[in-house]
Amino acid sequence: MFYKHSGRLGLSVPAILLIGIPVVILLSAIYAYIVVYCPVVGYVNVLFLGGYVFAAGIALAMIAKMSKCRSPSVLLALGTLGGLVGLYFSWVFFIKALFGEDVSAIAVALSPLGILEVAKEINANGWWGPSGIAQWALVAIEAAVIVGGIALFTSSSISREAFCEDCSTWCNPFETMHLKLTPELAAKDPSELDHLQLLGLEEVDKSEYPRLDAEVLQCTGCEKTQAIRFKKVAQVMDDGELKEQAEDIPGILIQKA
């Protein structure tokens, strides 16, 4: 009844290694140079970090899906590798940007011990404000966000997707049903909901809140494989405006005609 990925790798390993990793390295260079040369330093660096992790994670996620990987554990490993490479080269290009023509990016990349020594010096004395323990703490947080964030983006890229093994293709969104969310169901944790019970709910207009959205995915090849994923949809007040907020319900129903 519930869809489960087959665990097949597709072309994910060569695709990530040959395309994904170079993309991550390029984004690392862009991130490092922005951090060094941006006239505004401090908390705005958090935005740069978030943008870098998001871009790298999305890039690996797209490549993983296009390469037809159906193994979340392998994607987690590849995402972690991408995160570690991203962290390493962000330091490579940070040092290059900081010292300019005095150093070679290739020489820095080939000297991990040299990077460690420079990092110790930078963290001890600071380079834009904090130094010592505070700078080490910032560096540790940055490292955790880069590695963890990229790994999470990559590993979760297929968590809400379904694959038709007969046609070797991903199922695409086909239609969405809007269902009435009763107060009893709204009070339950998403993991406690009965998917078959949800399918029996009354259909409502898209403008009604709260509601359940049941999105039907269908194989475009055979048109026989279908999957249904659910999410709770509600309205919340944000900065004085009503905005739509969605929460995924774990599990995807699968059926074949």
Tell me the fraction of residues in β-strands, as a range.
Answer: 15-25%
The percent range for helix content is: 40-55%
Q: From the alpha-carbon coordinates, what is the Rg to the nearest angstrom?
A: 23 Å
Annotation, overall tally of beta strands: 5
Number of domains: 2
Q: Kindly report how far apart the N and C termini lie.
A: 13 Å
Order of helices and strands: HHHHHHEEHHEEE
Low-confidence stretches: none
Overall morphology: globular
Strand pairing plus helix content: what structural class?
alpha+beta
Transmembrane segments: 12-34, 40-62, 74-94, 133-153
Keywords: Membrane, Transmembrane, Transmembrane helix
Protein name: Transmembrane protein
Organism: Novipirellula herctigrandis
Descriptive notes:
This is Transmembrane protein. The chain is of the alpha+beta class. It folds into two domains: 144 residues, no CATH class; 94 residues, no CATH class. Helix content is 50%, strand content 21%. Strands 1-2-3-4-5 form a five-stranded antiparallel β-sheet. Strand 4 and strand 5 form a beta hairpin. The longest helix is centred in the first third of the chain and has 28 residues. The two termini are 13 Å apart.
Q: Can you give me a brief rundown of this structure?
A:
With 257 residues, this protein is an alpha+beta fold. 50% of the residues lie in helices and 21% in strands.
Protein traits:
single chain; 257 residues; alpha+beta; five-stranded antiparallel β-sheet; globular; Transmembrane protein
Question: How would you summarize the topology of this molecule?
Answer:
Layout: H1 12-37, H2 45-66, H3 72-99, H4 105-109, H5 112-125, H6 133-155, E1 163-164, E2 169-180, H7 183-187, H8 195-199, E3 211-219, E4 225-238, E5 241-256
Antiparallel strand pairs: 1-2, 2-3, 3-4, 4-5
Keywords: Membrane, Transmembrane, Transmembrane helix
Protein name: Transmembrane protein
